[in-house]
Amino acid sequence: MTDALPIPTGVPTTRRCPFELPTELLRLSEQGPLSRMRYSDGHLGWLVTGYSAARLVLGDGRFSNRADLARMPVAISSEAEQSRRAVPPGVFHRMDPPEHTRYRRLLTRHFTVRRMDRLVPRIEQLADGRLAAMERQGPPADLVADFAMPMSLDLLTELLGVPDEARERFRKESAALFELDSGAEEITRATQAIHERFRELIGQKKTGTAEDLLGHLAAEPDLPEDEAATIGMVILTAGFESTGNTLALGALALMRNPGQLEAVRVDPAVMDSAVEELLRYVTVTHFGPIRTALEDVRVGDALIKAGDSVTLALPAVNRDPEHFAAPDTLDVTRPAAHHAAFGYGIHQCLGQQLARSLMRCSYARLFDRFPALRPAVPFDEIHVRTDKNTYGLRELPVTW
Asked: 318 in helix, strand or coil?
């Protein structure tokens, strides 16, 4: 590792192309697996771009995941940062053991591969319904607004047991939680509104026999309603934007690489590896996860001191040439080489099997119904979003 490049303030996110790493991030990753990075509050911490270093940090208990210790690696107001650090009981994905372990054990059985496989017929029905509506409307359609994001929201709210009439309300109320320029008041107001609605649903399900996730949480004898409502909110907000954006970007990647799309069409068995490759290739977590060193830890040639903030740049980690051959090439037949799109270690994404099932079914139904699907505008007119917690497309006009 050298100090040849200037120390960046925050994670570089500006891209020239939807499928290229930000130029400054690429330069930093070429410099070495770790770089110094300055946080918006002036703290001098670290940015991880190498695969092996990322696995070490994510798998080592000496690095904390606690939200109250974390610094945001992007420029936001100090008040908004404090709001995002607030961790009421139930925000399990921003906790360390043993608190994290208790919640994780409670939830893991609801997200097994077997349970997700049982959802496949329903995912196919949801996809067919959205695609039929697109077909009736006629081209051009916006694959982001008309298919990818609604599919993500439909599946998550149905899994949770949120009634149909409340889904659009949840989408609108959660918007402030994803926007980086949201102020502290907006974040607090949105959080309280969503939490209150989830608490109402939990209360309603306590007297019933609902088989959805909120129903199971309501039936847990040692789980207070407040915590159950928070868990529901976390699952919805953690999965909605990331899954929807991955679905849209992945569809664009396949359309941009017709040979790869044809490989999936010719042999449906390729779909599993295609999904893993798309998760690697279009990694939407563009800054984070974030960890804080609890003690001095040596990572490669770097000594990370206790109290140092460490941010992982997962798009760069998933393009590390030391781990992935020809990492900038989309290859749907590539063996799944343990990409980091879902993180690693005890905090690896709880809903990863749900996301995989959604992608497999959605791509199969999408390209089966519209075999001539293609962007309705030139590629350089497709604009990305970097002003949210997750990377994605503003819109994706398509025709067929």
From this structure: coil
* Rounded Cα distance, 247 and 143, in Å: 9
Nearest in space to 364 (alpha carbons), one of 264, 276, 262, 287? 264
Which ranges constitute the DSSP H helices of 318-388?
352-369
Q: How many whole angstroms separate alpha carbon 238 and alpha carbon 111?
A: 14
- State how far the Cα of 205 lies from the Cα of 210, in Å rounded to an integer: 7
What radius of gyration do the chain's Cα atoms show? 21
User: What is the strand order of the sheet 44-48 is part of?
Assistant: 34-38, 44-48, 309-312, 290-293, 63-64
Distance (Å, whole) CA 395 – CA 244:
12
CA dist 212 and 117 (Å) reads 16
Rounded CA separation 168/154 (Å): 10
Instruction: Name the β-bridge partners of 309.
Output: 292
Report how far apart, in Å, the C-alpha atoms of 17 and of each of 28, 178, 375, 384 are.
18, 22, 15, 9
Q: Are 15 and 34 in contact (CB under 8 A)?
A: no
Taking only the tens of pLDDT, the chain with its 400 residues reads 445 678 999 999 999 899 999 999 999 999 999 999 999 889 999 999 999 999 999 999 999 999 999 998 887 666 656 656 667 788 999 999 999 999 999 999 999 988 899 999 999 999 999 999 999 999 999 999 999 999 999 999 999 999 888 888 888 888 888 888 888 888 888 889 999 999 999 999 887 777 899 999 999 999 999 999 999 999 998 899 999 999 999 999 999 999 999 999 999 899 999 999 999 999 999 999 999 999 999 999 999 999 999 999 999 999 999 999 999 999 999 987 799 999 999 999 999 999 999 999 999 999 999 999 999 999 999 999 998 889 999 999 999 9
CB 288 within 8 A of CB 388: no
Q: What are phi and psi of 63, to 5 degrees?
A: -110, 120
**Tokens for 34?**
């770790």
Contact yes or no for 155/358 (Cβ under 8 A): yes
Sign of CA dihedral 387, 389, 392, 397: negative
Query: What 3-state DSSP class applies to 14?
Result: coil
Distance CA 269, CA 236 (A): 30
8 A C-beta contact, residue 226 and residue 89: yes
